[in-house]
Specification:
Blueprint (H helix, E strand, L loop, with lengths): L1 E2 L3 E5 L4 E6 L2 H16 L4 E2 L2 E2 L3 E5 L4 E5 L5 E2 L6 E2 L7 H15 L3 H13 L2 E2 L8 E2 L1
Antiparallel strand pairs: 1-2, 2-3, 3-7, 4-5, 6-7, 8-11, 9-10
The structure holds adenosine-5'-triphosphate (ATP) and magnesium ion.
Length: about 130
């Protein structure tokens, strides 16, 4: 299905996707977030579909999830769980400007989704066009 900074994605024969991670830290973050979403029975954040957690393999660092079509929000490999990162005000300001530029007049929907994630302890900063699709 594709690849990114964190690893590779393959579609399975069960209409699920497996994301194979290159690094332990990213695997742990993604897994933790999907487990949190699953505990809250969340399959959508606002208008965005979120993949459903299917399973994992710690040894191989693989997370299996459902395949979603846009509008979606995914990729929790760089999300923070339960603890906000201690980004400086300047970093946050820079990030906000960047996200605003990326999403234009749909920034409101994106920010609402990120607030909803924060409400369940998921602090998501990896807002980019491949990860959040309309
Ligand atoms: N469950 C899914 N359903 C549909 N498409 C998916 C799914 N998971 C990933 N994809 C597609 O594969 C791409 C790469 O996945 P993902 O963003 O999770 O990988 P990544 O390695 O963390 O990428 P990067 O770090 O470059 O953002 C996504 O942008 C998306 O287009
Ligand atoms: Mg991504």
């Amino acid at each position: 299905m594709g690849f990114g900074q964190d690893g590779y994605l393959w579609a399975t024969e069960q209409t699920t996707a497996v994301k194979v991670f290159a690094r332990q830290g990213n695997y742990d973050r993604e897994l933790g977030c999907y487990q949190r979403l699953s505990e809250h029975n969340i399959t959508a954040i606002g208008n965005f579909r979120v993949p459903r957690f299917v399973g994992c393999n710690d040894e191989l660092m693989i997370v299996e999830m459902s395949i979603v079509s846009p509008p979606f929000l995914l990729d929790f490999g760089k999300a923070y769980l339960d603890q906000r990162p201690d980004y400086s005000p300047e970093t946050i300001e820079y990030w906000e400007a960047e996200v605003k530029e990326l999403f234009g007049d749909r920034i409101g929907e994106v920010k609402a989704a990120l607030r909803a994630l924060a409400a369940i302890g998921i602090y998501y900063y990896d807002a980019k066009l491949g990860n959040i699709k309309f």
